[in-house]
């Protein structure tokens, strides 16, 4: 209805919806002579769930790390929600971004790592509210209320006062997810979040991610070796090799009829190892 009354607002909404939530443009990352990401181009739509697969050393985790600005780019540019992350406009010229600008754009991104990285001296609730208190400036009351809601959402309402050492690996990883969500990100990054878990604990973490994807407007990039999860949950699968996207597509077609020989080799090896 509002679109009919104000065409300008409708046009603006359409433009925003068509703008990728995340855009990598010619992104290159080198460590000395080693090229880990090689002039990578990738657009991720709003609320799209992208699974990133490939052999070790193919650049998968590095992609997430440069997006989170944990590692600097060698070349190229990243945009988040229509804004340059690594650059900014100054006097009509695109220049390397200031730390303040990077922090402001990066605040739209949350990341969950392989290792849980929880503060061992803080309870699950304290871990969850630490950043909202000191980064977002939320009141203790509001942060605590939000933290309890998030821990309940990941199935840990009864573990708010438990320390990491009192939690299983799967429970610690779910606290890490709640902590990332506490910053109200638009983009969530998951870097092999089940790789440090026993197989029986993987399911509880993957179920939380499924719930997030189905119930919340979140763009997700997931580096994973869980092929079944990638097939069932992702909107798109990207196969990395030697710092490039060799093949990508909808999960059903990607897994049933991969076109590239390197993709076929990888999927055969994964299937034989299962």
TrEMBL record:
Keywords: Amino-acid transport, ATP-binding, Cell inner membrane, Cell membrane, Membrane, Nucleotide-binding, Transport
Domain of life the protein comes from: Bacteria
Any one GO molecular-function label of the UniProt entry: ATP binding
Keyword Metal-binding in annotation: no
Principal location listed in the UniProt entry: membrane
Subcellular location as annotated: Cell membrane
Alphabetized Pfam families for the sequence: ABC_tran (PF00005)
Domain ABC transporter: 22-267
One Gene Ontology CC term in the entry: plasma membrane
Bilayer topology term: Peripheral membrane protein
Homology family: Belongs to the ABC transporter superfamily.
NCBIfam families found in the cross-reference section: ectoine_ehuA (TIGR03005)
Protein name, as recorded: Arginine ABC transporter ATP-binding protein
């Amino acid at each position: 209805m509002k679109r009919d009354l104000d065409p300008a607002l409708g046009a603006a909404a359409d433009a925003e919806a068509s703008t990728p939530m995340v855009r990598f443009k010619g992104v290159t990352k080198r460590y000395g002579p080693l090229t880990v990401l090689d002039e990578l181009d990738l657009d991720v739509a709003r609320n799209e769930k992208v699974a990133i697969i490939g052999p070790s050393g193919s650049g998968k985790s590095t992609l997430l790390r440069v997006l989170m600005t944990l590692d600097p780019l060698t070349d190229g540019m990243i945009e988040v929600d229509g804004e340059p992350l690594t650059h900014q406009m100054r006097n009509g010229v695109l220049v390397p971004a200031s730390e303040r600008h990077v922090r402001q754009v990066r605040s739209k991104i949350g990341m969950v790592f392989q290792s849980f990285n929880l503060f061992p001296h803080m309870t699950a609730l304290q871990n969850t509210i630490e950043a909202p208190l000191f980064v977002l400036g939320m009141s203790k009351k509001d942060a605590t209320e939000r933290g309890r809601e998030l821990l309940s959402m990941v199935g840990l309402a009864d573990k708010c006062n438990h320390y990491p050492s009192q939690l299983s690996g799967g429970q610690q990883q779910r606290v890490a997810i709640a902590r990332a969500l506490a910053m109200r990100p638009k983009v969530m990054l998951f870097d092999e979040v089940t790789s440090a878990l026993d197989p029986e604990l993987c399911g509880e973490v993957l179920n939380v991610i499924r719930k997030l994807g189905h119930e919340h407007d979140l763009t997700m990039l997931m580096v994973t070796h869980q092929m079944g999860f990638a097939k069932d949950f992702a909107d798109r699968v990207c196969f990395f090799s030697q710092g490039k996207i060799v093949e990508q597509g909808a999960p059903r077609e990607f897994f049933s009829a991969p076109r590239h020989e390197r993709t076929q080799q990888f999927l055969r090896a994964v299937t034989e190892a299962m």
